[in-house]
Amino acid sequence: MAIDNRQPTSICLINQKGGCGKSSTCFHLAGAFAAMGHRVLLVDADPQGSISQAFFGSDAVEQMPAWETLAALFDDRCNHIDPYSLIRQTHVDGIYVLPANQHLATYNAPCPEQGGVMQFALRDFLEPLTSFGVVLFDCPPNLYQCSWNAMIAAKFVLIPIPPEDFGTQGIRAVHQAVANARVLNPSLRRLGHLITRSDRRMLVHRAYESRLRDLYGELVLHTTIPELSAFKVALACRQPVQMHAAKSAAAERTRELVDEIVARIQNRKLQKEAA
Ligand SMILES: Nc1ncnc2c1ncn2[C@@H]1O[C@H](COP(=O)(O)OP(=O)(O)O)[C@@H](O)[C@H]1O
Ligand SMILES: [Mg+2]
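Above: the input record for the complex with adenosine-5'-diphosphate. Below: its predicted structure, written as tokens.
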């Protein structure tokens, strides 16, 4: 199913906490979108380089010079570099990666609004790249320059939340950051909160989920991502679960997530809703 034939669908996964499944969801979502025939670009906007390592291995990623990674977009000395040369094809059909590693950390400064033209580095880089149907941004566990750049460049924000630490304070900070980013990127919309790493056998997870749904209503995606070893095993084999175990519950749930994301994007009401 085409989402929009004219422009790539770009989604950034944001949460200021680590370990909530941003990178894992990005990785497996990319597989599900690619299996549907979309050409997917994964933008690794995290100096931890999780997405890059998932595809290329940690040694290779650590050794990448800054000018072969996303860090080049922030470095004036790299102006002469052909932006297309930064994008790497992966071993998975239909998935491409703009890699990152430790070199990006220098540029991931707090107070991103003071970043001047740097705030638009990702947006300007991605604008001419119309051959991708889907662009997914994996962000670091903070709301600094890299997450800010992703929100300025993307059309949608997906907020993964594990159903444990209630942390509404943290959620409010994410919503505030989205609202701030909309000043520079008025078309940015919240796709919603995605409950990740959920184990419904645990009372605390069920209670958290229902509280979250009471608080945020339709802003919480109906689909949840369960804690399943199939996600980890596939990642260890450097394959999105859709490619590694297409019939698994993990792959099925990821396809359901894609369907819900596509339905939400196509819902014109959502597109008109102010974030
Ligand atoms: N749904 C899941 N089921 C099982 N393991 C998961 C799931 N989501 C994330 N993980 C694992 O939890 C750890 C942290 O997830 P990660 O995606 O790296 O979080 P983040 O990017 O938000 O810091 C990783 O080892 C990842 O493989
Ligand atoms: Mg991560």
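Notes for the reader.
The chain has one domain: 9-272.
The radius of gyration is 17 Å.
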